User: Which sequence fits this backbone?
């Protein structure tokens, strides 16, 4: 076996866990050696560092198959692929999934995806090209497929000096039908992207299922519809998918029909940036609750990284700008040139430029059949984040009730240029004290809704003061948009128990919901245009903030202090 010697101290990266040797790390590079030849790699002191496949014409000159002393097993190809399959079976993957993932499975440059009885294989290096007969034999023995399709169409093959002619072993159809997470797909294995399907997002699609319920979902770069159809089957109200490829859209439509959701998941050929721009401008039929942003690998090389980062930031920014407040953005990148740190920096920049407040719900990566090899960051290429756009806090109110049993209650309900959002947080503060906090959030409503809300408040006051004669107070504060922070204090006293106020408050919330529905009906009847005309003059100046104190006291002497601190205009 030919020996290749490293320069002094160049074995440090191998010792740290990496499996590549670059051409500039070799002492006296011999360009006459045939690409794909197995070589023994020696450290500068003459000790064996490993055995790998050599290509003198590639920047990555050696890709190791084995580290340390000793020889490769005679049938190492079969042993490596069998070990890889054992790992997949342990994770419940048998018929569908990635059965070999390059360096992570000790087969650098080899990708094997299984589609039931058919294997689709990408051979990306000269070393694996020379081992193709052994690979075919091992696959037939382990998987017993009806057909094996070597696509040979990756751009990486050209970097290794390899041709792009496809090869077929056995029977290989144009398309195959697979199942993932209970969803069926028709996959174009001969002409589709990668090997035909993106198995690497399997677990991320499953993770998103609870978030799809009742959402209007915009699925960008939808390809053959895997995310969008998963959303539809998980209970999404509507899914709009788009892709720039007419062929991909056609398969997405077929897959939607195959799963019986073609009335919910609708796919069209369109440009993602154009749709994001239209979403921001309010030109879509409705504003999405959730955006799925899974763009292609814009980063083909490290030189293209700055431009690609700028494009990723722009997409995140545009998606957040057009989302409803309280909506979700699922964002992914799929290039090993984008590290986890850079991925998070892209998100930070996009959020900052959007002017929105967002929180990271979860940060995820590629599926388990795409294992990340510790020591080789290049094997970690897929980054996935779910972001939630938080509601804007427009006011904060506190109410303290002092009785024989000390209780702290904080309640806030906001209406007027803002829909009522109740987000209670309850915490025990001791045997004699409890705290309840309601967050106030701002979303846009019309003047009509604000006026109808005032009617609702009037009904609540009538019920509270006349139907039930207990003494309590409902406070309505008017706050201008540009008003500086100020504090209002209201004091109310009750000389008797107010147990009924709980029921009154619940009735009031229900009534408010009904009245908002009435407002929606008025818009549908054509009144909205007139509302907007009036709205433009006074909407920017008025926020109607009302507090309904819900208390159930066991004392006959209660002193209530309500303190309101306005945050509007800050």
Assistant:
């Amino acid at each position: 076996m030919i020996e290749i010697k490293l320069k002094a101290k160049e074995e440090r990266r191998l010792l740290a866990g990496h499996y590549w040797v670059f051409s500039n790390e070799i002492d006296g590079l011999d360009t006459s050696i045939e690409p794909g030849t197995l070589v023994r790699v020696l450290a500068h002191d003459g000790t064996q560092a490993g055995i790998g496949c050599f290509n003198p014409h590639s920047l990555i000159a050696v890709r190791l198959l084995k580290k340390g002393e000793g020889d490769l097993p005679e049938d190492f190809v079969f042993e490596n692929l069998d070990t890889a399959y054992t790992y997949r079976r342990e994770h419940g993957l048998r018929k569908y999934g990635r059965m070999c993932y390059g360096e992570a499975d000790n087969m650098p440059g080899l990708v094997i995806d299984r589609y039931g009885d058919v294997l689709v294989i990408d051979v990306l290096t000269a070393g694996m090209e020379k081992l193709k007969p052994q690979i075919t034999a091992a696959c037939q023995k382990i998987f017993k497929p009806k057909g094996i399709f070597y696509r040979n169409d990756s751009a990486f093959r050209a970097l290794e000096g390899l041709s792009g002619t496809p090869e077929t072993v056995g029977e290989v159809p144009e398309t195959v039908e697979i199942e993932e997470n209970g969803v069926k797909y028709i996959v174009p294995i001969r002409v589709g992207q990668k090997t035909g399907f993106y198995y690497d997002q399997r677990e991320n699609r499953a993770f998103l299922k609870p978030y799809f319920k009742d959402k209007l979902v915009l699925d960008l770069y939808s390809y053959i519809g895997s995310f969008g159809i998963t959303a539809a089957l998980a209970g999404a109200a509507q899914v709009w998918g788009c892709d720039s490829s007419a062929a991909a859209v056609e398969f997405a439509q077929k897959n939607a029909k195959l799963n019986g959701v073609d009335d919910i998941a609708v796919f069209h050929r369109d440009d993602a940036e154009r749709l994001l721009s239209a979403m921001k401008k309010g030109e879509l039929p409705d504003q999405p609750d959730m955006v799925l942003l899974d763009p292609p690998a814009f980063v083909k090389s490290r030189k293209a990284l700055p431009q690609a980062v700028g494009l990723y930031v722009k997409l995140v920014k545009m998606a957040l700008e057009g989302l409803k407040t309280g909506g979700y953005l699922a964002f992914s990148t799929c290039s090993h040139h984008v590290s986890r740190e850079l991925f998070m920096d892209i998100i930070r920049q996009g959020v900052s430029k959007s002017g929105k407040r967002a929180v990271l719900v979860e940060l995820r990566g590629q599926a388990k059949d795409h294992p990340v090899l510790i020591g080789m960051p290049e094997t970690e290429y897929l980054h996935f984040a779910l972001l939630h756009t938080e509601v804007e806090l427009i006011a904060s109110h506190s109410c303290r009730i002092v009785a024989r049993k000390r209780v702290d209650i904080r309640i806030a309900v906001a209406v007027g240029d803002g829909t009522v959002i109740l987000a209670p947080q309850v915490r025990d503060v001791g045997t004699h004290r409890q705290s309840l906090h309601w967050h106030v959030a701002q979303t846009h409503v019309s003047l009509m809704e604000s006026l109808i809300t005032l009617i609702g408040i009037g009904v609540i006051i009538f019920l509270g003061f006349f139907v039930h004669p207990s003494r309590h107070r409902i406070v309505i504060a008017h706050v201008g948009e540009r008003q500086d922070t100020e504090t209002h204090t209201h004091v109310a006293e009750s000389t008797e128990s107010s147990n009924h106020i709980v029921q009154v408050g619940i009735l009031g919330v229900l009534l408010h919901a009904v009245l908002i529905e009435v407002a929606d009906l008025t818009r549908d009847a054509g009144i909205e245009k007139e509302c907007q005309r009036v709205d433009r003059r006074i909407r920017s100046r008025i926020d109607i903030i009302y507090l309904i104190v819900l208390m159930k006291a066991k004392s006959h002497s209660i002193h209530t202090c309500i303190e309101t601190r306005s945050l509007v205009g800050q």
About this structure: The first strand starts at residue 2 and ends at 5. The chain has four domains: 2-67, 76-170, 184-390, 393-566.
